[in-house]
C-alpha cells in the first residue's frame, strides 16, 4: 500500500477518529504530509511479515500538550535528526518507521519522516488509538525497553535518554518537553522486526485508511449507519453546554458537558479529558470509558472535533469504537484502564454498555 | 599536589569561602571525599601545563537547588557513569577531571569522581568561585561549546544533551533536574588541554587549599586579620534579623537581613540570594556585589554559613573577596555582573567600595 495524495486524506480522517479527541494539529499534519509526498514521492506501507527479524523499527510520536502544536508546528527535518540519532545510539541502520500511536497527528508525523528519510512505514502502531502517556504502549506491555529514547525539538536541539523505564521516561521527558516550549518529538521503545510482530497493534495504518474511506462515503447513510461496519456506536447527539479545559504539566486536562438534542433531549452527558477523551458519564453511569475510543464528531459534517477545539454551542455527536483486544486484557487494563487514570470504576466494553442501555430503554 | 586526608579539609574550607554561600552539602561532600581517598588513595592535582594539548578534560558540577542535596546525597558511581558517557559521546578517553566551579560542594564532587575513576584533577576551574547558572562559566566566555552534556542522577539514569547553547542548556537541563527530584550531576563545556590553558580560571584548587590553611590558622588573629593576606574584607558583623528563602524553579532564592552588633550597632544590611549570595545592600547603597565573592561566616568559629543554613538569631560576619580578573572585564560583567541577575546597578569592585566607606567614615 502507498500513502499518497489520494490515500492520505482517508488515513488522516481514520487517524482522527482513532485519536479519541487527541491531536488537534491533525489537519496541519495532513497538509505537511501531503506536501512531503508531493515533493518526495509516496510513502510505502509494508507489512510486518516483510520486515527482517533483526531490522530496526523506529516508533515515533510527539510528546507534550497537543493544543500547543496548533501554533508550534514542527520541522520536517526532525525525522532525519531522530533517525540519525537513533542509528548513532544503536550503531545500526534503521529499516522502517512506525507510528507510536495511530491516533491523531501522531499518525502523520511518521509519514513525513518516512518521506524525508526514504524509509517505509510499517502497517502497525503501539496503541491502535491514542493515549496521553509514554508507557501506555503495546511495546511496554510486551517488555520492550523504553530507552534509548531520542527527543528533538523543531530547532534541532537533541536529547538522548538512557537506562530509564517507561514511567520515569514519561515523568522526565515530559518535564523536558514543557521546557522545550510544550512540545517535542521522540523515538522510544525501538524494536526489531521479530519483536514487532508480537509486540505491536498490527494493521493499524490500513485500518485507519479503511475507517476514513467508510466515514467519507455518504452513500452509506448517517453517522450511525457509517459507524456500523467498523463496530462504532453513537453515545449521544447534543450541544456543548460547557467546556473546562486547561494546559497543565504538559497535558490538556478538563471536561465537557453535552446537552442532548432531538431524540436525546433531556440527557446531560459529561466527557472527561486528558489530551484524549477518557470517559463519558451520564447521571453517574458510565456510557463508555478508556481504553475504548471516544471521539466527538461535528453533527453536521461528521468531521472529528479534537479536544482543543471543543467550544460552547457546537453540535456534536459523541461516538465510541471498541479498543484493540490487547487493551481489554487484565494487563492491558492495568496500564490504560479507567483506574490507571484515577477513575473509581472498572472497565466495561462499550458494546455491552450500549446493549444494556438499549435493553433498559425498551 | 595531592588531595588527601590532610589537605582535603583545608581545600573544603577554602571552597566553602569561594562558594559565596552556595553549597550547603560541602560538609557531607568533604566526608564523601575523605572516604573516597581513604579507600582508593589520594587524588593527584596536576597543573594545566602538564596536560597534553589534545587531552580531554571533563568539567563537572551538580545542577539543581543546593538545599536538596542536604537530604538527597549522591552516589560515588556517578563519576564513572559521567566519564563513560562522555567517552562514548566523544569517542576518546578522558584525561582528567576539573571542577566546573571551585565553590562549595562542587569542588568536592570531582575529587570523588577522580578517586573512583583513577583520573587526576586539574588545578583550575570554570568560575574561581560559584555561580548559580550553567552559562556563568569561563569556558562560555571563551566560546567553548556547552554540549555535549551528560546528566546523571544518583540511580544511574542517563541523559545526553546535544547541539544546545549554554543558555538553552541551563533552561532545559535545569527543568530536567527538577524532574529528577531537584538535583543531578553533569559534565558540560568539556575541553582539551590547549583550550583549558586559556579558557579556565587557573590555580583554583591550590588557591582553595591556601585560603583554607590561612583561615584555619588562629595564630593570624581575628577574621579580618586572617582575610588580609587573601585580599578579603569584612562588610558587617551582626545578628540575623530575618530570613526569606524558598526553593523555586531549581534554585534557592531569597534575602536575609543582618542587624549590626558591637562596632556595627545601628547598621541594617540586606543580602540578596540566588543559590549564592549575590549582593549586599545598606540604606540603598551597595556594599558588595556579584561577581565579587560574598560569604557569611559564623562570628564565633569562622566557619562558613551556607545560604541554606541561615537562621534567625545567628551571629554572622559577612565577608567579601575580589572576583577573579576575567569576571571584572566588560564581557565578564555582561555574563555575571549585577545586571545579569536583574539588579539595577553597575558593578564596583569591593575594594573600592570598602575604601569609599572608610573615607566617608573618617
From TrEMBL, chains A, B:
<dbReference type="InterPro" id="IPR010318">
    <property type="entry name" value="S-Me-THD_N"/>
</dbReference>
<feature type="domain" description="S-Me-THD-like C-terminal">
    <location>
        <begin position="165"/>
        <end position="350"/>
    </location>
</feature>
<dbReference type="Pfam" id="PF20906">
    <property type="entry name" value="S-Me-THD_C"/>
</dbReference>
<feature type="domain" description="S-Me-THD N-terminal">
    <location>
        <begin position="9"/>
        <end position="162"/>
    </location>
</feature>
<dbReference type="InterPro" id="IPR048350">
    <property type="entry name" value="S-Me-THD-like_C"/>
</dbReference>
<protein>
    <submittedName>
        <fullName>DUF917 domain-containing protein</fullName>
    </submittedName>
</protein>
<dbReference type="Pfam" id="PF06032">
    <property type="entry name" value="S-Me-THD_N"/>
</dbReference>
<dbReference type="InterPro" id="IPR027479">
    <property type="entry name" value="S-Me-THD_N_sf"/>
</dbReference>
<dbReference type="InterPro" id="IPR024071">
    <property type="entry name" value="S-Me-THD_C_sf"/>
</dbReference>
